[in-house]
Specification:
Number of helices: 15
CATH superfamily: Metal-dependent hydrolases
Order of helices and strands: EHHHHEHEHEHHEHEHHEHHEHH
Oligomer: single chain
Number of domains: 1
Largest sheet: 5 strands, parallel
CATH topology: TIM Barrel
Number of strands: 8
Length: 283
Amino acid sequence: MTIDAHTHIFPPDVIERRELYARRDASFNLIYGNPGARMVNYDRLLSEMEEAGVDRAIVCGFPWRSHDLCRYHNNYMIEAVKASRGRLIGLATVNPLASKSCDKELERAFSEGLSGVGEISPDAQGFKLDDENTMGRIANAVGEAGYFLLLHVNEDVGHAYPGKTRTTPAGIYKLLTKFHEAKIVLAHWGGGLVFYELMPEVAKVTSNVFYDTAASPFLYRKEIYRIAIDIAGPARILFGTDFPLLRIKRHLDEIEQAGLKETEKKMIFSLNARNLLGDEFQE
């Protein structure tokens, strides 16, 4: 089984009327305001998975600032999960600034079949990583449900690109010192936090952290796979593509060319995601 742990889908109306949604959300405008920025619905994702030989995918929406838009996107995620007959594993999107409305939306989303929260972005949504009343309520909710949180993270050096935020390893370290018991997936190699696991105090708070490889070909040379495994071990790295930003096969090919052992590839492509997701997804 191959599982893509980081993909995105959008409701058809958002794709067809992107200009309207770009006016409603500044971060969406930054990333998707350009008509050339790719967005797909769940049918297109399933077709891509079929073409690439991927069995299942974890799907994210978008970190909307508006609670109403979060709820609207969650409705589509619920529909996608049900229509996929088990191939798609949906995550809820919420803004913790919505307070009790956020809590109620998480309860609804989980009861309707979504399996976690993500991809959340503090910069896009206006909350602080280490705040008990915002980040804390999401961490507590996923912990109580036995689920996980997928968090958008960036490196704080290198080239600029749409969606590059100020959520970097320094802030993530503060988050983990407060909420280290929650299962957290750090997107895009955690913005390089994986390298800091060479520091004992960082390694101490990352036992429940997974790193996904989303957009890796845009950010790092393929040697990162070997280096990350040597630092953090192979059990906490998830194959993720950020599709439709990148085609799934491009990512698969890069990992195949990275010189990893077969046992390591099996963990990255499948076993680690299944361990993260729990017993329901073992087969």
